[in-house]
Amino acid sequence: RICVITLAEAHPLLQNGKTITSVNYQISASCSRLQNKVSGKSKRGAQFLTELAPLCRISSSDGEEYTIYSCIRGRLIEVNENILNNPAILQEKPSTEGYIAVVLPKFEESKSITQGLLTRKEYEEVLLKRLNSSS
């Protein structure tokens, strides 16, 4: 029932030999995802996220900055502080140690959320269509 937020294989940060220079969980002057303190079975204190809530900003060596969004409604359970000191693991191990955050959707919404997800094959077909339409 938990959702692990990672960079998609097709994300520009994982293409074209870019180097990630920094990760910043400070979303605004008053909001830092690092201040998220979760306790207990009901996950008290967890920040609530909407689909469009920014999780972090990632900067690359070419000066580009990318805002990574939650894309899912739920409670922020954990952010990966390891990527602050070693942002390269976002590229080296994006689907394991290089995760960005863990989000727990509301129980009633979790089934509808998972039904809306693409299978691996559907995702690859979307990427292929995107590639063909841009060339």
Proportion of strand residues: 25-35%
Radius of gyration: 16 Å
Indicate the structural class. Answer: alpha+beta
Specify the overall morphology: globular
Number of helices: 4
Number-wise, the strands total 9
Largest sheet: 4 strands, antiparallel
Contiguous uncertain segments of 5+ residues: none
Name given to the CATH architecture: Beta Barrel
Average pLDDT metric: 88
Beginning-to-end CA distance, first to last residue:
38 Å
CATH classification, class level: Mainly Beta
Protein name: Protein Abitram
Family: Belongs to the ABITRAM family.
GO molecular function: actin filament binding; actin monomer binding
Main location: other
What would you say this structure looks like, in words?
It is a single chain. This protein has 4 helices and 9 strands; from the N terminus they run ββββββββααβαα. It is α+β, with helices and mostly antiparallel strands and 135 residues long. It has a single domain, classed as Beta Barrel (OB fold (Dihydrolipoamide Acetyltransferase, E2P)), CATH 2.40.50. The strands form 3 sheets. It has a 4-stranded antiparallel beta sheet, with no helix packed on it. A 3-stranded antiparallel beta sheet has the order 2-6-7. β3 (26-28) and β4 (31-32) form a beta hairpin. Pfam families: GCV_H.
